[in-house]
Amino acid sequence: MAASTAAEAPAQPTREAHPVLLRLVNDQELTDRLLAPLWTPSPVWKILFAVTGVGTLVLAGAVSYTVATGIGVWGNNIPVAWAYAIINFVWWIGIGHAGTFISAFLLLFQQRWRASINRVAEAMTLFALMNAALFPLLHLGRPWFFYWLIPYPSTMGVWPQFRSALPWDAAAVTAYFIVSLLFWYLGLLPDLASARDRAPGRLRRRIYGVFALGWRGAGRHWHQYQTAYVLLAGLATPLVISVHSIVSLDFSIAQLPGWHSTIFPPYFVVGAIYSGFAMVLVLIIPIRRVFGLGDLITARHLDNMAKLLLAMAWLLIYSYIVEIFIAWYSGDPYERYVHLLFRPSGSYAWLYWVMLFANVGVPQIFWISRARISAPVLFGAGILILLGMWLERFIIIVTSLSHDFLPSSWALYAPTWVDWCILGGSVSFFGLLFLLFLRFVPFISINELKQLTHELRRGSA
Amino acid sequence: MNVKGTQVLVEFADSDSMLQALELLRRHRYRKLETYTPHPIGGVSERLRLPHPWLPKITFAGGLLGALLGYGIQWYADTYDYPLNVGGRPLHSAVAYIPATFEAAVLGAALTAFVVLLFVIGLPALWHPVFEVDRFERATADRYWVSIKGVRDPIEIRKIRHLLAELTPVRLTVAEADP
Amino acid sequence: MTDDWPGFEEFPAEAELPPDGMSRRRFVQLLGASLALAGLGACMERPRERILPYVTSPPDVEPGTAEWYATSMTLGGYGIGLLVKSREGRPIKIEGNPDHPASLGAAGIYQQASLLQLYDPQRSKRLRQDRKPSDWQSFVSQFAPASLRGRVGQRGEGLHFLLEPTASPLLASLLGRLRDLYPNVSVHLYAPLAYSGQRTAAVTAFGAALMPLYDVRQADVILAVDSDFLGSGPFHLRYARDFAERRRPSSPDGSMSRLYAIEPVPSVTGTSADHRLRARAGDLEGILGAIAAQVILGPSGGPEGLPDAMAAVLDRYRRDERNPGWVPEIARDLAAAGHRSAVVVGESLPPRVHLLGHLVNLALGNIGTTIRYVKRPLIEPETGHDGLATLVEAMQAGAVHTLVMLDANPAYTAPAGLDFRRALGRVGETVSLGLFEDETGRLSQWHLPLAHYLESWDDCRAYDGTAGLVQPLIAPLYGGKTVAQVLGAFLGEGDWSSHDLVRAQWSGHWGKADAPERWNEAVQRGIVSDTAFSPLTPLPRWNDIAAALGPRLNQGAGGMELVFQADPCVYDGRFANNAWLQELPDPMTKLAWDNAALVSPATARRLRVETGDELRLRQGGQQLTIAALVHPGMADEVLGLRLGYGRGSGDESLAEGVGVNAYPLRMSETSYSSPGVTIDATGAHHQLARTQTHWGLEGRPIALHTTLAHYREQPNFAREERGSPLSLYRGPPLGSGDQWAMTIDLSACTGCSACVVACQAENNIPVVGKEGVLRSREMHWLRIDRYFTGDAEDPQVISQPMLCQHCEKAPCEYVCPVEATVHSPDGLNEMVYNRCVGTRFCSNNCPYKVRRFNWFDYNAELAETERMAKNPEVTIRARGVMEKCTFCVQRIRQAQIAAGLEGRELHDGEVRTACQQACPSQAIVFGSLTHPNAEVVRRRAEPRSYTVLHELGTEPRVRYLARLTNPNPALQRERDGG
């Protein structure tokens, strides 16, 4: 079958080594294949669901314990008043950047290959953001007053303090989540309609029908829809840049050595997209395998992702170099101590070097073209890079805090079991949300893929 | 059935014949045309003579509003409503207001775009006459439909059937038109 | 707010308002409610007798709703005068009595923390016989002469008393009358830290128990021989005050005194010295002897008329070649200073060292200028040092029928060699009177709760003989009795109240005529005027001295030397149950909630141990294991042990299992040092909780220090570190009124930590326990940073009190997302607890790391009595909020309100922060920059004033005055050379 279809659909004329789609499936088959997972869950799915479910319960337990007892159950101290919660926050929100980047950026630059993976990436963004948003709330001493960061005419007559980066943060994350959600949902609309029209049984048809809002693919609708979709993409693009820039300001507006650096905004954005791509790979490679989508998520996708990873890695390396150079060039003894002494040779040095290996060393393998299309290599690299990026945030936050200006107040930080449970739990929670997504939402944009095959046919015809 | 509110629905297996059908119908003075397709088809908008969407202008206005609101709140709170000496910084710390203002702008624009879109295309509308048409669900899978509204008498319908014959439509049905 | 502590949380909100009747009523309601819970109605009861507030309010306090009473606390036998603040009948803050010669307004850590002891929920609450509860009446009838005679014999052969050495006139006369009643009664005076060397030496040298009082203001050169006269002891507050006066030249051309300290274990005095010289305790006699020889014999064979015996003795000392190289230089310097010098010998040292000290002082003609001799105020036992050893002998001989232990804990403090516990088994009946049912209390048949001094009428004498009266601020919480009352019971006066006993004593002393007036005056002022002992002229008995010094011990024997010292925080163990003092880091080692074996880095290398490694110490058949703590500045081959830890088997559960009990290792009941301990590492490791773990300044402009000479050459060496650095923001104009600021003089600061406890008491600062300290979550708003400079083996030490710097451009403020920390118009960096959501961003951005976070609800488990100790004028902080130094804003506002009511401006010195008030050396000065001739303004103008981390542009309102030392150029060269 594969051979015959390959014959039936000659690879479209292109300069790239790998075709975007191995074969041009006809719309009927495409629709059915991509909707099939919605009707019948695979056994793998059930197992993973159980595992992540348990992990999520662990998270719930650890969170309740923390809120009931106080964040003293964490390892934080003075001077290291920020630790795992903020590390996880920055890590997750960074991961949440790839989705929009892939959808919006690549859409604007008309990278057609995005069609096979953008839905997954966007969903990942949303779930990463939901995890990220958990931590700023949780790490408050009195989480139940989080809304004091939101500007509203309160009876106390007091407002948030807008010179602090934290309200900026709140604004950025909120805006980013809402816009990402709209963008994702808008893209989903036509596929929900397809699901409605294909759904077995009345109930499912009803449910998908409601979410499809009555979409019927009318020409007039497509006309406005496409404009809106591009508009949202255009808005999401600067937004994605702004969000991690603002997150980086949480650190760089402080005068702490190791934080107070102007390279931070671009540095953080690059790091964010870098980790996001890694996560996308870690997600799509198993999906591709489990659902047998090798013909839709092709070597071309892997190759492109690998190249992007490599590019991002080098931008990151540049940021590292600038950060360290400026620390030295500034002549500021505190900056010099943190960057040139404490990080490479201090108490947390081994983490520092592991981080450099994962973030700087690992991606260099993608100079080899065979590595770029090897699923196992990409998957492994993705995992390592995710680890490395988590460590990067650990280094930035903990090393800077633990050894700042007055040696008398220097102290080290060590996490408690609660810290570990929350970190592990949030990963499970992310997995859980993602599994639900795979189960109930068309996880590859059917209509965009049809559009793509359509245009490819046109090109080949 | 209510003859006035009827429409003729023609189903095609491929988009090209649908586009040609549109050409043909326009040439024969059929104005009230609409298409239903599983994915956007280049050229449809032109053939339906759809005006250039004004969504972007509204969106820009929405962004502007968001920005003004964002900056306004900060400026009002710090300078007038509750001025406080915070770290010896000026009460009106313009630079510090930029990030939140930007976010407010983007949020305003995006919300506007989304809401206005739904308003313009008249969704949500969970029911529509075409849903009643047999096999119309394939319009979201792999079939391309054309609708000609306000067609009443059988001769007219036969004429259309004849007209589109060489484009080998899958089928042609008469249905109730949207209210 | 769900997590708020009911009651007290609301009140302080009102404390910001003028304390009107409304809020007071409300507070009493709340308090009443909480007391009803605890069933402690008695707590609010005032003493029945008339107690008199302090005559005139001390300068630092506007009465408001608080009343101040003068009283005294006795420690180590001597009294220190205090003023105690009382709110609604509860004592809530203890400060020094400016009129009292041993205090001059300052208070030490023990005096201030004794407040918490009063409210300790674990205090002994009932009088018991064996296991059954009993009462005072049955005790009295049991021990009244009538019934007791039958048991202990007509002349009281079998009757033994054990109590601490005391200077109380009342106890003296009671004991006298007791002896009249029972001629053969034995009174044993014993305290684990009461050393006899000084007295013995005085008796030998002058034929009378005299002791030297120093006037360090007159001294240009001071030699402290293992004496911590600035940091501990009954007169250290006064000495620190006087000493500081000669240590802070207001201008480069001012003068400074010079202090040499020779000691085995770093002390507050040693680290404040210009030259701290390390020596084993065993070598001190030789060293001081050599100095004495140099001074007296000089280049010529010494003055004519010098007895040959003496010359011989001195010559032997001089010829001892084992003495370190700096000895002659010190002698030269002392000699040069002539009669404006002083040699201070540590109380704990043996008689021979004291004799040498007397010799040098006499030879230099210091008597009358820097030193005056007075009679020792302590009650002197009839037969030599009638201490614990003789008692234990008698007990083992079965000669003790009735043993009465008054406020003593021998079962804990006795050295294992004496085996007090077993001897106790051979005693017919045992009575113990104690604040806690401690180790001794548990073992005795009768146990009586002791009345805390804040619950008692009593009297005492200060170190200089000044008599003071102790008046209660609150009726005994648990029906405790005073030592005098128990003695009274033995005299058949069991029905006498402590008030009657004291009153009778002093009426007798004054004679009935003018008693009432003098009584009132004494009670109000806390001291009995002109009772200080007048100086006596000592008549040295040269031959006796020479004879006593004659056959010289072979010293420095036997490898490692053990040195036992009172713990700087829990003293001899009696404060081990005091959370404030347990949490207070040792001023030297910064160790909290623990004790350790201090060793020098060199010795540690030799033993191949590091901080935390457990050592097994063996001596005289005794052994104990304790963690090592490598401490620069320790003399080599010396192992310093802090006494007072390892409490157990008593009611004091807080202290139980904290640290290791070092008493058993002592050779005799009051041995200070002993050579020949054998040490081996067990291989185990023990976690020591220290509040500071890095000692270097890393070349950062934090604690500036220089020598007086260099200061004279370059008066403006600190210019770079003050003034306004370049900034984009001019900063909004500050309010027109007062502008509060503080200066801290590092030259005067000894690091004694009195300010830390003062701050804790004033501001309701919670304790976090050892786990908290290990996680570096201690809550002290004011901490004392300690930095080492110079030689790693024998460094110089700088103590730097670090608190909120109240920056005019505070980094903490602009990062707070909810305006919970903002700036007040009068220049305070304010913390709004109720608004704080706990992001902790402020702490991250505070370069001084002085902000503290409530990781848990630290006030949740407070006992009702502990809540009574809280200062109602300061908010109890909720869980999850930041807190930090407020410049004692409650004091500022109260003063402003009071001044406002009188329609006048505040004048300088009217507002004093708790830390400033407690500081014995007056290193801390607080005031408003708007007062033209305020002390704080004058000090800020000094050339050596600077701000910490100035280049960050935070513009702190706290300025430090760089530490100045006045080293001997000759020795300085030596140090630099070597």
List low-confidence stretches of chain A: 1-15
Oligomer: heterotrimer
Strand segment count of chain A: 0
Radius of gyration of chain A: 23 Å
DSSP helix count of chain A? 16
Q: What's the story with the biggest beta sheet of chain A?
A: none
| Helix content bin of chain A | over 70%
Task: Give the low-pLDDT segments of chain C.
Answer: 1-43, 55-64
Q: Sheet bearing the most strands of chain C, described? A: 7 strands, mixed
What overall form of chain A do the CA principal axes indicate? globular
N-to-C CA distance of chain C: 63 Å
Structural class per helix/strand content of chain C? alpha/beta
H and E order of chain A: HHHHHHHHHHHHHHHH
Q: What does the average pLDDT of chain C come to?
A: 87
Strand content of chain A: under 5%
Helix/strand class of chain A: mainly alpha
- Order of strands across the widest beta sheet of chain C? 5-4-16-15-14-6-7
Share of residues in strands of chain C: 15-25%
Question: Could you list some keywords that capture this structure?
Answer:
heterotrimer; A: 461 residues; mainly alpha; 71% helix; disordered N terminus; B: 179 residues; alpha+beta; 5 helices; 4 strands
